[in-house]
Write a structure and sequence with these properties.
It is a single chain. With 233 residues, this protein is an all-beta fold. The protein contains no helices and 18 strands. Strand 16 and strand 17 form a beta hairpin. It is rod-shaped and about 170 Å long. The termini are far apart.
Length: 233
């Protein structure tokens, strides 16, 4: 409402008058937009679902940009979605953060908004490593023509484990342990001077995640013989 008021004074007299007019004006509503929250759902070790909640009033929602950063805060990826959810795949093991930034359009201009509630951590865990330790085989061969000297050779499998040595357990024909030797190599030269039949069993030792593990088997058990010393006429 616009009011025009006039006053005239002369010779002790005063005259007043006024006129008013109503002007219509369309007032634009105030736009409001905010990123309210972000949720991270673990689908699998490498797959995640980002879900954002936002409030947009008197503006047009455009999209959500998800910014992924590594543990050092360095941006390593950026994805955009026009819906509230985004399925994201990350295969590299590590700890990450994702931040949602919403974009809106107001009078043809793009505006953005984010908040601390729209920033969340997530992690791609390391896959558990399954160690494989086996004693594959044992062979016994005589050294040269000497009847008392033998070479033990052990083959083994060590996956995600560290080989530390082989223990050779020697038993007589009655199964009684008569000797025990250890080697940090795959082979061992062994001397037995007492005539008789024997067996040797290889027990392989490994280190797995700081713990000692052993392996043996039927393939790692062999027989050998120290023959009687020949008599000469």
């Amino acid at each position: 409402k616009l009011v025009n008021k006039a006053t005239v004074s002369t010779g002790g007299y005063k005259k007043e008058d006024e006129a008013s007019v109503i002007v219509d004006k369309n007032c634009k509503p105030t736009p409001a937009y905010e990123c309210k929250s972000l949720g991270v759902t673990v689908i699998s070790d490498t797959k995640f679902r980002f879900t954002v909640d936002y409030n947009v009033q008197n503006a047009t929602f455009k999209e959500v940009t998800y910014i992924i950063r590594d543990a050092n805060g360095t941006e390593i990826d950026r994805k955009t979605s026009t819906s509230k959810t985004l399925d994201y795949t990350r295969t590299a093991v590590g700890k990450y953060t994702v931040q949602a930034v919403i974009s809106v359009t107001i009078d043809g201009q793009t505006k953005t908004a984010t908040s601390e509630n729209c920033k969340k951590p997530f992690e791609v865990p390391a896959k558990p490593v399954t160690p494989v330790v086996k004693c594959d085989s044992l062979s016994v061969s005589r050294l040269s023509r000497d009847r008392t000297k033998f070479l033990f050779t052990t083959e083994y499998t060590a996956q995600n484990a560290t080989f530390t040595g082989v223990t050779y357990v020697i038993r007589n024909a009655n199964g009684t342990e008569v000797d025990r030797k250890t080697s940090t190599e795959k082979t061992l030269e062994y001397t037995q001077t007492t005539t008789g039949k024997y067996s040797v069993q290889a027990i392989v030792s490994f280190t797995v995640n700081g713990e000692t593990k052993t392996a043996t088997g039927d393939n790692c058990k062999k027989e050998f013989e120290v023959p009687a010393k020949p008599e000469f006429c």
